[in-house]
Structures are given as C-alpha cells and as structure tokens.
Design brief:
The protein is 24% helix and 27% strand. With 361 residues, it is of the alpha/beta class. The chain has 2 domains: 274 residues, Zn peptidases (Aminopeptidase), CATH 3.40.630; 74 residues, OB fold (Dihydrolipoamide Acetyltransferase, E2P), CATH 2.40.50.630. The radius of gyration is 20 Å and the shape is globular. The protein binds the ligand O=C(O)CCC(=O)N[C@@H](CCC(=O)O)C(=O)O and zinc ion (ZN). Zinc ion binds next to loops. It is an enzyme of class 3 (hydrolase).
C-alpha cells in the first residue's frame, strides 16, 4: 500500500480536487493510500481507497459502520464542506472516532465544473437489483466504483445482525423549502422502520421525513436495499456556491454528526414526534414528453400544498391534478431528461407512530 504523509495543511477536499493536477500527490491509480503521521493515527487507520473515498478504522472495537456521502450532485456544496470539516477534524485528532467510517465524495468532476452532474444524474444509477456493470460515461463508472466500495465496507465490517449499518447521503435542494432540512427515507419493501433512525434524522435538524413508496436508483436506497443499512437522503438547505453557506445554519446538524461519530448520540433524548412532520410519497411523476411544464412559479417552495383538483403540471396531453386535500410538491424540475423523475407528490401523515409501525415502542 502506498503512503501519504499528513501535514497540518492537509485538507481532504483540496487533496481530492487537486488529484491529477499536482505532481506531489502521486498518480491517480496509486490506491489504496495509507495516511500516515496524522495525530489521529495513534488510535485509528486512515486509508484512501479511491479518489474521494476515505475509510477510518478505529483500533478499538466498534459496533457501527457509518457512511457519510456528499457531492453525489457536484454543486451541492454545504454537505461537502460539512464532510470535509469532520474529516479534517478526525485526522487532526480533534474528534475521537468510535465508529468505522467511510467518507465518500461522490461526483468529483461535477464539483470541479460546479454542476449537478456531467452527463447523467449519478443519483439515479445505484440500482441494487439491476446493477450497472459497464459504463458509458463518467457517472456510470463512478456509480459502479462507489457501489463496490459500499459493498466492501459493509461486508468487511461484519454480519448485519451484529452491526449497526448507517448511510447518510447528504444533499441540498435546488429550490427553497418550507422545511429547510428534510430527509427522504428509502422504500423498505415492508420491512420495519427504525425509531432510532427517525430520531437521528430529527437530531440532524430535519423537520420533515418523506417515506418513499417505491424502489429507486438513489445512493441511500442502494445501501438500504443491498445492505440493510438505516439510510436516507438528507437535504440540508438550498444549493449555494462554495463559501456562501453559513456554518451557523449547520451547527445542530454538525453537532449531531460529531456526536454520532464519537458514539455519544442518544436518540432517546430526541423528541422527534413534536419536531418532525412525516410525509408519505403518494406519486412520483416521470417526465414523458418534451412538452412538460409545471403550473406554478419557479420560486414556489418545496412542500407547497395544492387544492384538490388544481393543476400541478402538464405533460403533453396528460394533466396532473392534486388528488387529495393538501397534496404537496417536492423536487419539481421540468428540466430533467425524458423518463426521469420530474417531481414527487406527498400526503401528510397524521398518525406517525401508526405509519412507521413502532407504536408499541
Ligand atoms: O431539489 C431538487 O430538485 C433535487 C435535490 C436532490 O438532489 N434530491 C435527491 C433526492 C433523492 C431521493 O429521492 O432520495 C435527488 O433528486 O437525487
Ligand atoms: Zn442532490
């Protein structure tokens, strides 16, 4: 294994973005690389497994395998900054890690380009039951590599019944939201929800959780379905350029992430029932024609509700109207490719315990 010497100026994000552009970090194919001489290396191993993929393994026994991923969409900068701060803090010895941790920076070329993706939306390519095996563009090859890293990380941690597996895939939303921070919980195919995980999402400052109604190609769905991980797409505010995110907006989120990393997060202290609204995804609208339009203004917030029978969007000859009182929109985007999801429709869940299935907890 090749080695990389940590110095006080080491910065995980800068290192990842400068790879291939600087002669002092070695060729891009010299993986894995063990990080040496960091203050934290006295009590953990830090190994760069691939560009933007860094595993921390504490020397002492752990019972949790945690994945923190960001930049699955390249222009969603706040999560990248959060993951970078946490990673640098661990290496500098400022955070006493007590879980196995895999940090993943998703779409590196898209970060450099300042765009959501280069050729294709990476967060539609993680299909556990119809896996990509050959790539025809950068996102497809990255999806194949990231899925292999997730497989290896969870499988090498130990059996699912002996470990807690968590994957938090951190994003930001394109438009403003009535809930500044919220999470999308993957479809569980009838398996039970975990109250401790809903409480964790609340602890991360999410005030809404959307329960998916179907299989998808998202990164969090992959970890949930293929590895039984407690997983979610966590939306942390709105897309902003690097440097324009206010760290104060992420104080609670980051405090909870730090607590999770040092095994000090106590989910039973979180009053999620009063802090969090639950939504069921009722419909997923996929764009079918170039003649697709949204029937509301560009600055309409996520979670805006529509009156029954009012027009939400039009796709060629098909009109989508609100089917129940208070049906709400999230992630509307008329500019997606044909066949891709153009928006989700939501119903408010009035009996969260009943819907989540742990009313006796
Ligand atoms: O704001 C938007 O329109 C998109 C924000 C975003 O990237 N959301 C994720 C959600 C993934 C999920 O449904 O779990 C995405 O669209 O990939
Ligand atoms: Zn995103």
């Amino acid at each position: 294994m090749s080695a990389l010497n940590w110095t006080e100026t080491f910065d995980f994000l800068k290192y990842t973005l400068s790879e291939g552009e600087s002669s002092d970090i070695g060729p891009a194919d010299s993986y894995p690389k063990s990080i040496q001489s960091a203050p934290a290396c006295a009590h953990l191993e830090a190994t760069l497994l691939a560009p933007g993929v860094l595993q921390f393994t504490p020397n002492q026994a752990t019972d949790t395998d945690l994945i923190l991923s960001c930049a699955v969409h390249g222009n969603e900068t706040a999560p990248i900054e959060i993951c970078n701060r946490l990673t640098n803090a661990i290496l500098a010895g400022d955070l006493n890690l007590r879980v196995r941790l895999l940090v993943m920076i998703g779409n590196i070329p898209a970060i450099k380009a300042g765009t959501r993706f280069i050729d294709e939306n990476l967060n539609r390519l993680f299909k556990p039951d119809a896996r990509l095996t050959e790539a025809t563009n950068p996102e497809q090859s990255r999806a194949i590599a990231l899925m292999a890293e997730v497989d290896r990380f969870f499988e090498s941690g130990g059996e699912l019944n002996e470990r807690r597996r968590i994957h938090l895939d951190l994003h930001t939303a394109i438009r403003g939201s009535k809930h500044q921070k919220f999470a999308v919980h993957p479809f569980l195919h009838g398996k039970p929800y975990q109250e401790r995980f809903i409480a964790l999402l609340s602890g991360l400052d999410c005030t809404a959780v959307l329960l998916s109604h179907e299989a998808t190609g998202t990164f969090s769905y992959f970890s949930s379905k293929a590895h039984g991980a407690e997983a979610a797409t966590v939306e942390l505010g709105k897309v902003m350029p690097f440097g324009e995110n206010n760290p104060m907006d992420y104080l609670l989120t980051e405090t909870t992430l730090r607590a999770l990393l040092i095994q000090q997060f106590d989910w039973q202290q979180v009053n999620w029932r009063s802090a969090l609204q639950l939504f069921q995804v009722s419909r997923s609208v996929h764009k079918q024609t170039e003649d697709f339009s949204l029937n509301f203004a560009d600055d309409t917030f996520n979670f805006t509700q529509f009156e029954t029978d009012s027009l939400i969007c039009q796709d060629g000859d098909t009109a989508y109207t609100a089917q129940a009182p208070g049906e709400a929109i999230v992630f509307p985007n008329a500019n997606v490719a044909i066949g891709q999801r153009a928006l989700l429709l939501l119903q408010t869940v009035t009996e969260p315990d009943q819907r989540l299935g742990f009313s006796d907890a």
